[in-house]
Amino acid sequence: MARTAGDTRDLLIECVDTLLAVVEEKNWSLRQHCERVANGVAHFCSRFNLVPAKEIDTVYFAALLHDFGLAFGPPELLEAAEEGADAAALRQHPLLAEKLLSGMSALSRALPFIRHHHEHWDGSGVPAGLKGEEIPLGARLIALFDCFDGLTSPPFPRQGVEPQAALERIIELSGRRFDGSLVDSFAQYIESAPRKPEEYIRGRKTESVNLKEVFTRILQKFAAGRIALPVMPRIVQELQQIIDRPNPTADDLAAAVEKEPVIALRLVSIANSPAYRGMKDIRSVRQAIPRLGLKETMNLVVAIANKSLYETPSPHYRALMEKLWAHALAAAYGAKKIALHLGLAEPDVLFLLGLTHDIGKTFLLRAFSEEEAVKTVDVKLVLTAVQEAHLGISQLLLKRWGFDEAFLRAAALHEKNEFDPAVSREALVVNLANFLTRAIGYSLLEGEALNPEELRSARLLGIGPEECRRLSEETAALMKDLAHLF
Fold first, then answer.
1. Is the predicted pLDDT of residue 44 greater than 90, yes or no?
2. Is the pLDDT higher at 212 or at 275?
3. Which of 24, 130, 169, 258 is disulfide-compatible with 119, CB 3.0–4.6 A?
4. Do 458 and 468 contact (CB within 8 A), yes or no?
5. Which spans in 65-199 are helix H?
6. pLDDT tops 80 at residue 157
7. pLDDT, position 211
8. Alpha-carbon dihedral 43, 45, 48, 53, rounded to 10 degrees
C-alpha cells in the first residue's frame, strides 16, 4: 500500500503506464501522440508558470490519457481519427475516456481536462459547448499541443506539416478555437523548445537526488580550488591603473578602451543614448569620455566588460543569466540614483557596489549550467539552492578580485531587512537598490519584493515611500534607455 505522496505518485505512474501499454497494443502511433502531447504540456506549464508546480502532474496525466477513448471505442472510431474525419462518434471520445477512467480516484482531478479538451474558446467545441474561461485551463493547454502534434506528426497515411506552418495555423485560430492569452506563450515555447522534449516524468524522478548531489559537488570543487574562478577582465584592471594615476587624462583612458573594439563601440552607443546624449552625436571614444566623465566611463566599461561573465553556452540557463545581468545593472543604476538623491560623496562607487552585489549567483549558475545532470531539474529548485548559498560565494569572489571591505559588506547585507546600528550607508543603499529593482521587475525571484514601507534600509536612510517609488521609476526609465546597449 502507498504510504507517502511519493509512493502514491509512483503507483499512479505505474497504473498509467499499464493503461498506455494497452493503448499501444490497440494503436502504436496513438500512444506516441499522447506521450508527445503530455511531455510538451508539462514542460510548457513549468517554463511559463501556468499552473502551480504541484498541479503539473495532474495536467500531465490528463494529457497522457486524453485520447484514451479512441483506443477503446468501436473500431470505426479509431479509423475515423486516423483518416482525419469529423464523425459525430469521434467527437464523443472524450466522454468515453472519462467514463472508462472514472473508477480511478487518483485521476479524478484530471478527468475534467480529458472531458473538455475538444472545447473551443468561442463555444463551438464539444462535448458541452463551453466558452472562454468556462473551459478548464488544463483542457485548454492540452488542446494546443493536441492540435500541434496532430498537424506535425499525424498517423499514416496523412503527411504532417512543418512546425512553423502548424504554429501559423494555431495563431490563425487564436481567439476562436484556442485561448489567445496562451497562444503567444505557446508560440515562444515551440520556437525555442527542442523538437523532442525531455521526458517529463524521468526528469521529475531524478531531480530531487541530482540537485543535492550536484550542488554539493560544485561547492566541494570550489572549496578545493578545482573550479576555475572568473577573473576581472584585463581592460578593467588597465583602466583602474590609469584612474589611480596622479593626473589621469581622457586620452589615456581612450587609448586603453580603443584596444577593445566591442567595448569601444558599446561605449559610444551609450554616450549617444537618451540618458547621456548632448547637443551632437558622438562618433569616437575620445569624444565620449569628456561627455561621460572619467569615473562614469570607468563604471560603464566595467559593466560592459562584466557582462561577459553572464554568458553561458547552455540554452537552459541563458535566459536566467540574462535576467541576472539585468538585475545587476538595474541595482547599479538604482544605487547610484539613491546616492545622488542623498548627496553621498562617491555615487560612482555605489554604481560598482550595486553591479557586483550578486556576483556569487553568476558563478553558481554558470557552474550549474555546465553540469549535465541538472538539465532535467526544475529551474526553481536550482534558484532556491543558489539563493541560499550565493552570499558567501559573492564575498569570496570580491575578495579574490581585490575589492575592499565596502564591497564585501554590501554583498553580505543586500538580502537583509534588519541591521546592526553601525551598518554603513553604502550597504544600506545597495540593500535598498536590490529590493527596489525587484519591485520594478528586474529579479530572478518571484513574489519577493517588499513594499517601500517595509524596507528598513529606506527608513534608516531617511527615504520615504513616495521617494522610493520615484527612484524606482527613474531607474526603470534608465534601464529602458540603456540595458540593450551593454
1. yes
2. 275
3. 130
4. yes
5. 68-72, 75-82, 93-101, 111-115, 137-152, 163-172, 180-192
6. no
7. 64
8. -100
Contact 394, 403 (CB under 8 A): no
> Average of pLDDT values for 105-128?
94
The answer to whether the CB of 464 falls within 8 A of the CB of 403 is no
Place of cell 511559463: 48
Q: What is the DSSP letter of 353?
A: H
- Position 128 scores a pLDDT of 92
Q: CB of 267 within 8 A of CB of 300?
A: yes
Query: How would DSSP label each residue in 10-31?
Result: HHHHHHHHHHHHHHHHH-HHHH
| CA dihedral (171, 56, 193, 309) positive or negative | positive
Which residue's C-alpha cell is 547637443? 279
2: pLDDT strictly greater than 50? no
Q: pLDDT at position 80, please?
A: 55
User: So what's the pLDDT on residue 338?
Assistant: 95
Q: Do the domains 210-485 and 5-197 match in fold?
A: yes
C-alpha triplet 205, 211, 213: angle, nearest 5°: 110
DSSP per position, 48-67: HT-S-GGGHHHHHHHHHTTT
Average pLDDT across the chain, whole number:
83
Cα angle, residue 290 at apex, residues 351 and 401 outer, rounded to 5°: 35
Q: Which residue has the higher pLDDT, 345 or 446?
A: 345
CATH number belonging to domain 5-197: 1.10.3210.10
* Secondary-structure class of domain 210-485 per CATH: mainly alpha
Cβ atoms within 10 Å, residue 19: 22
Let me know: does 94 contact 63? Beta carbons within 8 Å.
no
Residue that the C-alpha cell 472531458 belongs to:
115
Worst-scoring range by mean pLDDT, 289-293, 360-364, 385-389, 436-440?
385-389
- Please state, in angstroms and as integers, the Cα–Cα distance from residue 73 to each residue in 77, 78, 442, following that order: 6, 7, 52
Q: State the Cα–Cα distance between residues 277 and 272, nearest whole angstrom.
A: 5
Domain ranges for the chain: 5-197, 210-485
pTM recorded for the entire structure: 0.58
Which whole number is the average pLDDT over 41-65?
Answer: 91
Which cell is 154 given? 499525424
**Residue whose C-alpha is closest to residue 481's, from 277, 264, 320:** 277
CA distance 151 to 177: 15
**Spatial separation of the C-alpha atoms in residues 337 and 331, rounded to whole Å:** 10
At 178, is the secondary structure helix, strand, or coil?
strand
